[in-house]
Amino acid sequence: MLEQMGYEVTSFKITWGLPPKARLRLKSNGGADIQKMSAIAAKAPTDGVLASTLISSAATAKRIQSSMKLGTAFLDVDFALPPRVSMKFVNSKENSKEEPRDLDDLEFACR
Prior knowledge:
By secondary structure, the chain is α+β, with helices and mostly antiparallel strands. Helices cover 32% and strands 27% of the residues. The chain has a four-stranded antiparallel beta sheet with strand order 1-2-3-4, covered by helices on one side. Helix 1 runs antiparallel to helix 2. The longest helix has 19 residues. The radius of gyration is 15 Å and the shape is globular. The termini are far apart. The relative contact order is 0.18. The model has no long low-confidence stretch (mean pLDDT 77).
């Protein structure tokens, strides 16, 4: 469903511990057709809080990206206690192919 919305998975990281957590990073791969996004979001399963939150966050990020004429959108989803979804947007005028980094990425790079 997320692929139909124009997202691709760039990384999936699992940390075993107490409590365990997982991080999923999604990258938008192009412009958004808002009507198509709304139709896909309407078909999303509503029985799971996490799945419905992920789909609605992806749709919201695409709407923001489209209405504000922003470049690539990144969604970082932390499956932890409490779960968290953060959105990052890269300026559409930048030609940089590098993804935005966060402190967890730097911690991993230094090990």
